Amino acid sequence: xxxxxxxxxxxxALSVGSNDTSNALGICIGCRIISFRRAxxxxxxxxxxxxxLQGRKVMKTVGKDIVEMDLRILGISLLVSAILIxxxxxxxxxxxxxxxxxxxxxxxxxxxxxxxxxxxxxEILLSWAISPLAAFFASLIIYRAMEKTLSKLPFLQIxxxxxxxxxASGIIxxxxxxxxxxxxxxxxxxxxGLIDETWAFLGGAFLVFLGAVLLSNRIIETIGSGITALDPxxxxxxxxxxxxxxxxxxxxxxxISTTYCIIGGITGIGxxxxxxxxxxxxxxxxxLSWILAPALAFLTCFTIxxxxx
Length: 309
Prior knowledge:
The protein is mainly alpha-helical. The protein contains twelve helices and no strands. The two termini are 13 Å apart. The mean pLDDT is 84.
C-alpha cells in the first residue's frame, strides 16, 4: 500500500505544474511579456523557494488537522485525486488541487469512520468561498489606484513599469504555488512518515517544473486569454490582487486555490471594463467544476472504500 500514495503524489505534483503555470505566468505569456520557455524556468525556481520558506504551515493543516490519517485513507485519496486532476487538465478545466485532495481525504476518512475535524474543514470551506471574492475586489482596488497614479506618466514609461510589475506579480504567484499548492500535496505523505521532508521538497518541485514544461500550454490558453481580453495594465492588477490574497491565506496556513484567486482577479477586471467583455459561459463551466470537483472526489472515495473495504 505504501507506494500508492507516493506515486499518486508524484502524479499530482506533475499535474500542478501543468495546471498552475497558467496561474503564475499565463497572463505574462498572453500579453507577450515573456516567452513560454523562460516562464516555466522562473516558475520552477520560485515554486522551490516557496515550499522551502513557507510551505510547512499549509502542510500541517492538510496532513494533520483535517483527518486522522492512515495508509488506506492516504492511498485511495491521493490515487483518486491524481486521476480526477489529470482528467480535468486534459479537458482544459482549471481545477483546484486543494479541493480535490481535501474532498478525497474527507470522503475516505468518513467512509472508514476516522476522526474528521469539522472545525478545520469549515474554516477551509470558508477560505475557498472568501478568497476568490477577496481577489476580485483587491484587483478592482489596485486597478483604480493605478489609474490615479500611473496615468500622469508618459505612455512608454507606464508600459515599461507595468511589464516589470506584471512579471514580479507572476513570481509571487509561483512562490505561493510552492508554499500553498505543493504543500497541500506533500503534507499528507510527509506527516505520515512516507518520505523525508527534504527529498519531498526537491522531488515535488522538480515534478511541478516537469509538468509545466510538458503539459501547461493547454491551460495557459484558458487563463491567459479565454475569460476576458487582458493587456499588461489590467493583467497586473488581476494577478497582483490574486497574489496578495494567496500570500495572506498561506501565512494563515489555509490551503486555498491559486487557480480560483486568479480567476476572481481576472473576472474583477473584466467586470470593470464591462460585463460584455467577460466570457460568461467559460465562467459558468469553471464555477461548475469548483462545486463538482470536491463533491465528486468525496463521493468517489467514499464509494470505493465502502465497496472494497
